[in-house]
Automatic annotation (TrEMBL):
Keywords from the named record: Methyltransferase, Transferase
Organism superkingdom: Bacteria
InterPro entries reported for this sequence: CFA/CMAS, Methyltransf_25, MeTrfase_reg_dom_prd, SAM-dependent_MTases_sf
Coiled coil stretches, renumbered: none
Pfam family for this entry, one: Methyltransf_25
Biological-process GO terms, alphabetical: methylation
Domain named Methyltransferase: residues: 61-162
Domain (Methyltransferase regulatory): residue spans on this chain: 235-320
Entry GO MF terms: methyltransferase activity
Name of the protein in its database record: Methyltransferase domain-containing protein
Length: 466
């Protein structure tokens, strides 16, 4: 879709402005499965939204791509698509370009540019028409003026019916770190010209001293103390990006929705699949409250804010669509039936004991149990290889309960036990497998074996089950 709507040009000047973002230390490479095209398409299909197709040519833009691990993983799986990544750090862009070359990924364009500078982005991106625009994390770390520039960029370059994925620190969970983060920034400013990694470690030592000394903020909020202890063991480079940006901010979902509404983008759901299923992601005692809110006609901003309170949400993965387009009932059913699924290795470890009647899922609201009678038929069917939704829907457990399978598959995918995949020709599946293996080898050679092992291969051969 829209593959000829724009041209790509390399920014001729590497920007050096760093007053709004940490650039002196590398942002560690991470993989976020929720950013993969197949995942987004499956989430949106589950929600009944007409998502841009990922089995044909499509276009993809990532804002704040870092060294582009997520983008490269997507590009390896979708050779027919075009992927563009923008980041302020020349170091990360050069690293990503080197990995792309080493992996033979010709459908990648990585550009060092400042998303807060409309002139620079206009030189880099001409025309309009990206089917997907994604950004993870940076929205919470940049200055208000840069966030507004991001809104305008998405409004200008997202194609009609295109989808924007936005992950950001949210109220109320992340807001509990606000005072801690402010002290860390003040301490980092005191340390002057030392590296951000050194500054964040010194700042954490100060905060931990306060916590261990019984500072009331942590005494009154035991969960915050546990989070601080967890953070203290994390990588300094990551923590510098997470906590030392002067414009760090936890956002209210209603504010983000309002900002996106100004660019004709409507909230359509979460890329955290289980959060679209109230029965599994909200406390049982609150189900009646949310049902009442819906019957009272309260809008998405009201309901999502209440959900954030119910879950003590600290990170949101929002999905917005330009000129949101729900699927008709018939089209929704057809797209669901066409979905393809495979069993993942983690499902074996999830199998309960012989006398168990349920599988427990750890969630933000505590353990949630899935009846084994609902889950086991899917596991059993997928043991022999990939299956379509249509095939699974004919199993006795689901034939008389057609509304059960869709949320169940979304939940099992979120748990990491199954995956939505594409069924393609044998030759195309083999081509994708080689591309993914080459990227995995590139990342492993860079000392990122754990990251390489997380890069999925999302194509299977139509000639046989695998």
């Amino acid at each position: 879709m829209h593959s000829d709507c724009f041209a790509f040009t390399l920014s001729p000047v590497m920007p050096t402005r760093s007053d709004t973002y940490i650039t002196d230390v590398a942002y560690p490479a991470h993989f976020h499965r929720e950013m993969m095209p197949q995942w987004l398409h499956a989430c949106l299909t589950g929600l009944g939204i007409a998502a841009p197709a990922v089995d044909a040519a499509f276009t993809w833009l990532e804002l704040g791509c870092g060294s582009a691990c997520n983008l490269l993983a997507a590009a390896a799986n979708y050779p027919q698509a075009r992927f563009v990544g923008i980041d302020l750090s020349a170091r990360e862009i050069l690293q990503g370009q080197a990995w792309a070359r080493a992996s033979g990924l010709e459908n990648v364009q990585l550009v060092c540019a400042d998303v807060g500078d409309p002139t620079t982005t206009a030189q880099t991106l001409t025309g309009s028409g990206f089917d997907y625009i994604v950004s993870h994390g940076v929205y919470s770390w940049i200055a208000p003026a840069v966030r507004e520039a991001v809104h305008q960029l998405i409004g200008r370059y997202l194609a009609p019916q295109g989808v924007a994925y936005l992950a950001y620190n949210s109220h109320p969970g992340a807001a509990s770190l606000s005072a801690t983060q402010r002290l860390m920034v003040l301490n980092a400013q005191r340390l002057g010209n030392s590296s951000s990694s050194a500054q964040v470690r010194d700042s954490l030592s100060l905060v931990m001293a306060l916590a261990k000394g019984g500072a009331g903020n942590y005494v009154e909020q035991p969960a915050l103390l546990r989070e601080l202890e967890r953070i203290n063991g994390m990588d300094d480079s990551y923590l510098a990006h997470e906590f030392l940006n002067a414009h760090w901010c936890a956002h209210h979902v209603s504010d983000v929705m309002q900002a996106f509404a100004t660019i004709d983008c409507q909230y359509v759901g979460s890329a955290t699949a289980i959060e679209n299923i109230n029965a599994l992601s909200l406390p049982a005692k609150l189900q009646g409250v949310f049902a009442h809110m819906q019957t009272q006609g309260m809008g998405a901003a009201h309901i999502e804010t209440a959900k954030d309170i119910a879950r003590h949400q600290n990170l949101r993965r929002d999905l917005y669509q330009k000129s949101a387009t729900p699927l008709s009932e018939t089209a929704h059913r057809q797209q669901l039936l066409a979905q393809q699924l495979v069993l993942l290795p983690a499902a074996q470890a999830a199998q309960p004991g012989a006398n168990a009647t349920a599988i427990a899922l750890p969630t933000r609201i505590g353990p949630v149990e899935l009846p084994l009678a609902q889950v086991q038929p899917i596991f059993d069917a997928l043991q022999s290889g990939s299956q379509s939704y249509a095939t699974l829907a004919q199993l006795p457990a689901y034939r008389s309960h057609p509304g059960l399978l869709n949320p169940l598959l979304q939940t099992l995918a979120w748990a990491g036990w199954i995956a939505f995949v594409q069924r393609t020709s044998h030759d195309d599946a083999q081509r994708v497998a080689r591309r993914v293996q080459r990227l995995q080898a590139t990342l492993s050679a860079a000392g990122l074996q754990a990251l390489a092992s997380r890069v999925p291969c999302l194509s299977i051969s139509a000639a046989r089950n695998v």
